[in-house]
Amino acid sequence: MNPKNLEKHEGETIPQENHSTAVSHKDVPGMFDGPLGPLLIRLALPMMMGMLFNIAYTIVDTYFISSIDPSDPSIIGGSGLIFPVVFLFVAMANGLMIGVSSLVARAIGERDNGVLSRVADSGVALALVLGVLSVLLGYIFSDGIVSAMGAQGDYARHALDYFQWILPGLGAMLTMQVLIGVIQGEGQVKYMMRAMILGNLVNIFLDPFFILERVAFLPGLNMGVRGAALATVLGQSLAAVYLIWVFAAKKTRVPVAWSPKHVRLHLIEKILSVGFPQTLAQIMMSVTFLVLNRIMIGIDPRTVTAASLCGRMDQIVLIPIFALSSALMTVVGQNMGRGLMERARKSWRIGALIAIASVTVTATMMVLLAPLVYSIFTSDATVLRYSVLQTYILEYSFLFAAVAITARAVFQANGRPWPALVITGLRMLGFVLPFVYIFTSLFHWGIYGVWGGIIAGNLIVAVLAVTWTEGYWKKLLSGQAVYQRTGGESSCAVEENIGASQESVVMAQE
User: Is residue 50 part of a domain?
Assistant: First the structure.
């Protein structure tokens, strides 16, 4: 056997030919040449379609929960109050997804089959361990968690019901996000779209039957917010089953052997090195929302209900940003892995501009339709007024968030997540919370102080994110910064890509 076809993995020598038979690779059309705008849109649209079904589920879910008793704000408020806590668990899933996606995208660019043949199994093993621990800890501390949020009476009862019933789905969600991370890193986004559509359609269908006592002439389970949580668990579990089938049927280029023999600790470490900072960033966001909820409860508990409604509807504005961010992860990661640094930088600039244009359109739509939209979900005049005012004041601040989110994707794609963590940390803990404290406690602006603090934090961090990201690209292209490889296990791929990278730097300097 040719020595060049050998790789080392933690003290063992593995023939590269085995990897080539396990990993069939075909580049996504237009990934490494051609116009970037259409490529980003083509990759983002399927993800956006899947996320739009998530919006549809959110709207349907909110509608049926509010239909239990439209005059009782504690039902919507209680279930919404628990979202920052659920967000802590969701943060782990998103961290795993981004860690796996970044590793897969860069390995495809580098043609490192050693990583590609083992990354999925390593990610799944990590997800299973974290899933079991998360669910157990969630049940053990559920009462204390709800109490720590400041919820009382009916708000606490509904929050606890929703939390305890949605916990079993978290394990399935973690595994599903690992598989989605593999597919996203490949650029095979159609399977992501189908999984998301399937899970949300099942959720939408089950919602009324699980939540209400009667649906037309058919009996329902009358489970209230518990039914909403159970429908979510079943829908997401079915989506996870579909993704498992996708890999079992070998529809993807990166395989899952479903065997502990394919688990590699060094790959788990690499997934965590990118994913943990992302998880930590989302935990920071969750803690910030938790503190903001406590502040708003002190101002008026109905502001929490309004914030919960707005948070669900704001997904219409945020979904295109998240879809473009995911597309950027794939395009930037694969092009950097292939050594096309200037193309990777151009993709971030184009992606940011598309995100800004998208927010302008969707935010305008939400501002125009706010009174009509929120009147569907609440009959409480005060909650309706807060919801409409929050939309009028905050919606265009998502323009700043779009810039920060796309900038964050650049660092994650390159396997350098700490700048992304700093961007989020500065936004939430460094600026938003201090400004909110100043505006509400010192200036006594009430709920307007909360909204003003959020706008100030978003604006400052957007400026910092652009400055940092552009500075990083300049250093990378001039050779002052180094591209973060997937591990160098495949020496042939590394040597091949170094030449391409150096060539792109020379061209950029010329």
Answer: yes
Long-range contacts of 140-144 (CB under 8 A, 24+ apart): 142/167
Please tell me the pTM assigned to this model. Answer: 0.77
Pair 192, 50: CB distance under 8 Å: yes
CB atoms near residue 305 (< 10 Å):
28
The span from the CA of 136 to the CA of 131, in Å, is 9
Q: Tell me how far apart the alpha carbons of residues 61 and 54 are, in angstroms, rounded to a whole number.
A: 10
- Token couple for 173: 């969600």
Assigned domain for 22 exists: no
> How many whole angstroms separate alpha carbon 462 and alpha carbon 399?
9
Question: Measuring CA to CA, which residue among 170, 156, 166, 173 is closest to residue 81?
Answer: 156
Q: Are 460 and 431 in contact (CB under 8 A)?
A: yes
176 burial (CB, 10 Å; 0-12 / 13-18 / 19+) is: buried
Residue whose entry in the numeric block shows the structure tokens 């323009």: 399
pLDDT per position as a tens digit, 316-342: 899 899 999 989 989 999 999 888 999
Residues 51 and 319 sit within 8 Å (Cβ to Cβ): yes
HEC sequence for 71-132: CCHHHHHHHHHCHHHHHHHHHHHHHHHHHHHHHHHHHHHHCCHHHHCCHHHHHHHHHHHHHH
Half-sphere CA count of 179, side-chain side, radius 13 A = 28
In a domain, 263, yes or no: yes
The answer to whether residue 308 sits within a structural domain is yes
Given a cut of 70, is residue 19 above it in pLDDT? no
Half-sphere exposure (CA, 13 Å, Cβ side) for 364? 6
Q: How many domains does the chain have?
A: 1
| Domain that includes residue 91, residue range | 34-509
Q: Any idea which residue has 């652009």 for tokens?
A: 466
- Count other C-beta atoms under 10 Å from residue 64's C-beta: 23
36-67 vs 189-211: helix axis angle to the nearest 10?
10
CA dist 472 and 411 (Å) reads 9
Q: What is the pLDDT of residues 169-202, one digit of tens each?
A: 877 788 888 999 999 888 888 898 899 899 989 9
